[in-house]
Design goal:
With 307 residues, the protein is of the alpha/beta class. The chain contains 14 helices and eight strands. The strands form two sheets. The chain has a six-stranded mixed β-sheet with strand order 3-4-5-6-7-8, sandwiched between helices. It has a two-stranded antiparallel ribbon with strand order 1-2.
């Protein structure tokens, strides 16, 4: 696929110059969606739709939700960026294999000098490093090495076109998954359980203060009575003495407690599948959920002005 290729859409017959895809995919970024929810419009989205010629081809009577679903479907066929992978994991793993009552998904989770793309906790921990066809493999070894210090199951998910190349970069204990051309997630290689080998100090560094304090209280029965300036240092020392298995399992418990599962369950059933990763990632509260649903029901011509 060359950079200037034009893509013909099956359902709408809309031609999109390929060079506009990187900009169009930013529609699903928090900065654009947050602006849409807050103000009911987006200067960025208007400009890219007009510049690409899409505005003149779209039925502006369609809803915003319908437009976002169309754009996502387009992306999943023609330009699978990181968001497409995150959303596929949300729909097919978190919601397809688990339940929100007992599972939780986190994105951009800090581990040492890396950011894990997707983490799903559901009694154990599963991390998914995304390597789309537009991503470099330069840091993949360092990334999976860091993740083995924190998570039980470590996976890399990639495209059909580079599944072999990515597989050659991975240690034997790392799982390998493929987002297929027909938008299914295929397990190429199962991950090996690494819970016994995690490093408590690294887990500690990835947690919030209230989370590691809760674990310290659970394991030791008390929270150290020390000046605030000493809390981190003292707790880190105590945490380092916890066995890898216990440190891991307690981490899973505190991560499962993040977010409001009731609000998430309510809104996840009312938003298009294309937006589920965004909703999970942003931890939308009830007030914003209502505004978001109102936005999705609006007609596209209320937020897009043809030029």
């Amino acid at each position: 696929m060359t950079k200037m290729k034009t893509v013909q859409q099956d359902n709408f017959g809309i031609n999109i110059p390929f060079k506009y895809y990187p900009a169009l995919t930013r529609t699903f970024s928090p900065i654009v969606l947050e602006e849409l929810i807050k103000t009911g419009s987006s200067k960025y989205l208007c400009e890219i739709l007009n510049d690409s010629g899409i505005t003149k081809q779209l039925d502006l009577e369609m809803t915003v939700g319908g437009f976002l679903d169309w754009l996502y479907h387009n992306m999943s066929n023609n330009y699978r960026n990181e968001y497409v992978y995150k959303n596929a994991l949300a729909n097919k793993i978190l919601l397809g294999k688990h339940t929100l009552n007992k599972s939780y998904m986190l994105t951009e989770f800090r581990v040492e000098n890396c950011r894990a793309d997707v983490v799903i906790v559901n009694g154990t921990s599963n991390v998914y490093e995304i390597k789309s066809e537009y991503d470099s493999l330069e840091r993949i070894k360092k990334q999976v090495e860091s993740y083995t210090k924190v998570f039980d199951m470590v996976n890399v998910i990639t495209s059909s076109s580079q599944i072999k190349k990515v597989g050659l970069e991975l240690p034997v204990e790392i799982g390998l998954m493929e987002l297929t051309r027909n938008y299914k997630i295929l397990t190429v290689k199962e991950p090996v359980s690494l819970k016994r080998h995690v490093i408590p100090e690294v887990i500690f560094e990835s947690l919030r203060k209230d989370e590691y304090l809760k674990i310290i209280k659970t394991v030791y029965g008390y929270i150290p009575d020390v000046p605030n300036a000493k809390v981190f240092e003292v707790c880190r020392e105590l945490f380092s003495r916890i066995s890898p298995e216990i440190a891991h399992d307690e981490m899973v418990k505190v991560l499962l407690a993040r977010g409001n599962k009731k609000i998430l369950r309510d809104i996840i059933t009312h938003v298009p599948q294309s937006l589920r990763a965004y909703v999970i990632d942003r931890k939308i509260d009830k007030k914003k959920a209502i505004k978001f649903e109102e936005l999705l029901a609006k007609k596209l011509n209320t937020i897009i002005i043809p030029m």
